[in-house]
Amino acid sequence: MRMKYLALAAAVAAASVAVSPARSAEPKHGGILRIFHRETPPSLSIHEEATFSVNVPAMGIFNNLIIYDQHKPQASLDTIEPELATSWSWSKDNLNLTFKLRSGVKWHDGQPFTAKDVKCTFDLLQGKAQDKFRKNPRKDWYANLNEVTVNGDDEVTFHLKRPQPSFLAMLASGYTPIYSCHVPAAQMRTNPIGTGPFKFVEMKQNESIKLVKNPDYWKKGLPYLDGIEYTIIKNRATAVLAFVAGKVDVTFPTEMTAALEADIKKQDPTAVCELKPINVSTNLIINRDDPPFNNPELRQAMALSLDRKAFIDIILQGQGDIGGSLLPPPEGVWGLPPDQLKTLPGYGDVNKDREEARKIMAKLGYSASNPLKIKVATRNLATYRDPAAVLIDQLKSIYIDAELDPVESSSWFAKVARKDYQVGLNLTGNGIDDPDQAFYENYACNSERNYTHYCNRDLEKLFDEQSAETDVAKRKKMVWEIDKKIQQDVARPILFHARTGTCWKPYVKNLTIMSNNAYNGYRFEDLWLDR
Amino acid sequence: MGSYLVRRFFLMLLTLFGISVLIFTMLRVVPGNIADILFDAAGMIDVSEKAKLEHDLGLDKPIAVQYVQWIDGLAHGDLGYSYVSEKPALQEILPRIPITAKLAVLALLFAIVFGVPLGVISAVRQNSALDYVLRVVSLSGLSMPAFWLGLLILMAFVRYFGTIPIYTDPPKDFWSALWLFSIPAAAVGFRSSALIMRLTRSSMLEVLRQDYIRTARAKGASDRNVNYHHALRNAVLPVVTVIGIEAAFLMGGLIVTETVFNIPGIARFLVEAIRWRDYPIVQNLVMFIAFVAVAINFLIDVLYAVLDPRIKYA
Question: What is the rounded distance in angstroms from the CA atom of residue A320 to the CA atom of residue A381?
Fold first, then answer.
């Protein structure tokens, strides 16, 4: 009889365990999500900044017209969803993009959201408004935008100079929130007002950023959280210990290295951790106008000297990807597939490539006893210095005797912009996984961020052609050809695409870390805490 | 004494003036300004936008004009605006001073409470087992980097207590503040106490060999009376000097401890401000730290006369 009861009790216990996941799958309201932040952001005005140190805490304050599905790790044109817009349509000539807007949406200060706010935002971005941004790092994204017109309070049309399907990708980025007409740009830096799920409470330098639930959020029932607190912990070791001790629920997104992630898992086996690409490439920049680097053969030899796998093994404990200028598949949508990469100079057999490089160098008059002496400039930060040291070591294999030239962080971009370097190592982050953003920003002749001043007018025509192509499969092939040409021209040899990690406690539910960008997945409106 | 104090006061003003010129010039000699940093963070250089920002912040004016404007503002209690937060500099600096002050005072207390008595014990028990142990402890205090010690403490807390004593929110009452600050204070005070202990020991050893100590013992004074009344009072002068130097150091030199324990005090804030070339914050904060250092030095000089009546300031 006793055995029967025991068996029954065991069955009940087993059944309760079996149903508990289903119970916990029901979202719970309440709680403050605690995340550590790696630094005090320069401001909370997303439009004025170019670091996800801003996007992470500020995305929850705002809404876009459209947004990448926050729970699909691979953001693409197919994962775009309406947000402040309810629908969108292209004109037949693909030059006009019209959005129907959601009605009844209110700003955090109670003012109604209208089509005029959309126009104000893009006028600001294009420098057409009377009010001005202090800086406007993504104005090039909207170079193809002629104007925005308002059709009543609930409709807005974007008039493009030429068809550009990727325009939607830029609008869906975390970098493209809608600002209001009635709040000055300067105020958005210190006291932002949005329509998003969370209201800004305060930002204290070196201390914290606090957001509170927007009770009037237009998505009924959301957000689940009562608020989000970002505690600024600059020291990474302290931050990791704070996470392990339970002082924070989530590490700063994509901030953990493979080694740190392993350390966290060892100290807290319940932690959920993911290592993913963040669409930031580490690349070699060569001053093409500075002799002897104006010789394409020398640049070719340098490209052939690279052992990309060694970079990934040494710097990232194997957690990185080899690719071209766009993030490689499977996480990347547009990157060159491995079989095509192998055909490019410097991507094949390292020993053979280096042999070929040495022959070129010998032809140019260099040898082991007469090496080419150069300086490799890089930003004086560990993420730049470490791969630069590996690069210097690899260049030795082709008779290049390089010396590290660490440059004060504040002078780095000014230095490369005025071409005051021979060879350098740089990091390039892509806000979205999209060819338009990558090509125009980094390889167009007149782009501010084309640090090597690579200029190929024929290729620029191809940039425009792929940009206007609406057939994705056809466009992808065009993009691959362009990327191959960029690599063959040694425009900016890509050394690797890094993978970085995020960890969170198991009670944090509905958190999705995107796998092909680090800037677009922090709305957190349906994230909840199961505790 | 009165004329000495007046002279010292004017010397203090002169020192502060010198520091103000030095910090102002050095800040502008260092490559890059806030506009460079802001645009650098965005990975772009837009010459016209950058020039506009420099103009808006008055960075395009001659350095001498900028200096006069700063000193004039300082004299009128206007410290300017932080370039980063765009809030009044005073509003940014003021709340951080008590945080660092609490940490510094606790650390100094820790250093004195442990450093002086243990230094005396080490001296009077010279070459005993206890002396050797204390010397090893003090040497380890001097040689262990505060960063490493701080992290060790944090790791131990996480490992054995499942919590971490770092600053995430302002403490709600006196006891939680005491708990929050006492651990980092002990971490930083360990080094200071080691320094004070070693100095007390060597100073005591020198005094204990003096004739008047032998006389005191011959007259039948107790060990306690000899050590603490006759010897320590004379041995303490160099220790007081070091305590003064440590106090001044602790107000501005807690960067490592503040970083490891995530304390939002002035040292960490200053380093951040330097990184951003946030001139109004850096200039005013350095002036404040300099003022504290100069004032403490002045107080120490006055204290000499109180501790040793033989010292007269004519």
Answer: 19
Nearest to A449 among B40, B44, B268 (CB): B44
| Chain A residues with beta carbon closer than 8 angstroms to that of B163 | 245-246
Q: Residue A34: closest CA among chain B residues belongs to which residue?
A: B168
Q: Which residues of chain B have pLDDT under 50?
A: none
User: Is the CB of A448 inside 8 Å of chain B's CB atoms?
Assistant: yes
- pLDDT for position A13: 43
Instruction: Please give the DSSP secondary-structure letter assigned to residue A137.
Output: T
Instruction: Count how many pairs of residues, chain A against chain B, have C-beta atoms within 8 Å.
Output: 126
Measuring CA to CA, which residue among B173, B180, B149, B146 is closest to residue B249?
B146
User: What separation in angstroms does the CA of A100 have from each of A65, A152, A166?
Assistant: 9, 10, 19
Q: How far apart are CA A268 and CA A503, in angstroms?
A: 10
Asked if B46 and A136 come within 8 Å (Cβ–Cβ), the reply is yes
What confidence tens digit (pLDDT) does each residue in A273-325 have? Answer: 999 999 999 999 999 999 999 999 999 999 999 999 999 999 999 999 999 99
Q: How many residues does chain A have?
A: 531
Taking 60 as the threshold, does the pLDDT of residue A22 lie above it?
no
Kindly state whether A414 is in contact with chain B, defined as any CB-CB distance less than 8 angstroms.
yes
pLDDT recorded at residue A4: 45
Has this prediction a pTM greater than 0.90?
A: no
* Contact call for A50 and B43, based on CB within 8 A: yes
> Among residues A350, A347, A365, A394, which one has the least CA distance to residue A298?
A365
A42 interfaces chain B, CB cutoff of 8 Å: yes
